[in-house]
Write a structure and sequence with these properties.
By secondary structure, this protein is of the alpha/beta class. It is built from five helices and five strands, in the order βαβαβαβαβα. It has helices spanning 15-31, 51-59, 79-91, 109-114, 128-147, and strands at 2-8, 39-44, 66-75, 96-101, 117-119. Helix 1 (15-31) runs parallel beside helix 5 (128-147) and helix 3 (79-91) crosses helix 5. The two termini are 26 Å apart.
Amino acid sequence: MKIAVIAIGRLARSPETELVKLYVDRATAAGRSLGLGPVEVIEVESRKPGKAAEAEALRAHLADSHVIACDERGKARASRAFADEIGTLRDRGVRRLVFLIGGADGLDPELVKTCAGALAFGPQTWPHAMARAMLCEQIYRAVSILAGSPYHRD
């Protein structure tokens, strides 16, 4: 199952950008034997401002995908539950899992309604770049859990 993080905006060179790359590379390498990956990050720019225009730009990348929105009103999951969800989707034959990250104002509520689920990173507000890095780390952690790696400790 391919995994994509599709996000509005481009990250400049930063420590967060390096973390995203590190965890994407690790998840891709560790996931090969599990039928997970590659993991990719797709950065999307909207030609117009606003959530609706951003949603249209994101929709162009969602064909034939199981889509989970990263949204503050979503459900927070423990790392093992997150891993179990990814494993279950893979085992059900989902070919592409997509996580969406909106722009500075979040995702368009109409787009979120069309998603199969919504994931929250807790009640705090996180900077866009940190949310992207945290999601990629959790994807790597999920792959590690599914592989039985000692990376995750309960």
